[in-house]
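Pinned message: reference record for histidine kinase
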Amino acid sequence: MNATGPRRRWWPRSVRARTALAAASAAAVILVGIGWWVHHDVYRQGTQIAEEQAQMQLWSLVDQLNEGVVPVRRSAVPYEVVASGRRSAVAYGGGMDDLDPGTRHVLPAPSEAKESALLTIRPIRIPARRDDNPRDRFELAGGTYLVMSTDISADELSSDKVAALGIAADAKLRVYVVVLPHTAEAITKTTDRLLLRAGLVSLVLIAAVAYFAVRIALRPVEAIRVLTASVTASDPRERVTVPATGHEITALATTINTTLQRLDNAAAEQRRFVADAAHELRSPLTTLLASLEVALAYPERTDWPAAATTAARQTRRLHALAEDLLLLARLDTRTPIAGPETVDLTALASRLTEQYPLTERPLTLTCDSTAPAHAHGNPDAYERLLRNLIDNAARHATHRIQITVRNQDAWVVLTVHDDGPGVPTEDAERIFERFVRLDDARSRDHGGTGLGLAIARDLAHRHKGTLTLTPRTLGACFQLRLPQAPTPAEK
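Predicted structure (tokens):
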């Protein structure tokens, strides 16, 4: 049966540990690259020094041979001087002793005449012999090394020098100097060990510095976390301390404070909305309850048709308020309205003008339009928006309500103008708040919920439009602007 427990991750969860590991990994890659470059550069320079040392030794040997002097065996660089027609080496030293070149020369004798000043560098394998001593400190036997060589002709030397060297008068001399890589390799190995130790120490220090630097940098974040953990939706009054450093933590703290402020405002608005809704619901419920209690207490003296009329009116008011609250709840949760259609606002305004009941007071409701005005949206939502504007105008108009619909550039502009007392300039935005009814209008409000204009503006915004109160000398004029849609014939 397979285990269902959580899988373990090798990657640490802590931001501090992750940063330290990432910094150490990046530093390791850089140090490896630097170490590789230093390794090869040190080896290259060591080999170059060895070649220069071997070349100096070669020309020193040539000078001694030209003087008729047999070089001494003590030398820092292995060398051998061989001559044609001679079995043993003329001279040798620097580690060639263990190969016993005195019996038979190790390196090949010249087979043809060479220019005395010609320098040759080529790899040569040092032959291994049966009686070789494996304790040779350079381990020359059996190895392949770069060898520098040059030739000297005996006929260029005097007879005394030829005799001193022990070679024939027509012999050809070849001077060999072995380029030893041991020094370069030893220096490179020593450098590699130092680089390895320094690299390990550097990685530990870099990881430690990164860990503690991030730890210090995250202290304000931890303080913000602790404080925001105490914030609740019912009491979002806490604010985090904004550091004065101006770095990313400052931006984070500012953003969190802004979010908390929005949460605080939303909570306050929600509390006010609930209180206003309770107040609006209590008024019709109180009237309805009082009417029914009086009717039940004195049934023989109750005008039951009037009591039923009062109960029906208050019930309708409760029903309208409940519908408005449900619609606002949908708008607040951004619940999508039905699929967009193309709506002719001119036809809609004309239809509502003809069908709107004006039974309570003698009012004149007219619609002025010149052409069809199409906009994308939901027909029911547009009808609710326009009906709310007409209801608001009907409650405050004195004699007349004028609706106009126009096409202006890429917009459809619809206005609802009444000849009532108007709205003070300072309250031009306040009237769109929920449950707001101006004091002058309260005495004339016949059943309004105080939500009509708020719903109308929300519906306008949901259709990418605007709803504003435009200044007028007489009455109030609400202007609705919506993006114009192409007519069905143009599609």
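Pinned by admin. Summary line: The chain has three domains: 67-181, 248-331, 339-490.
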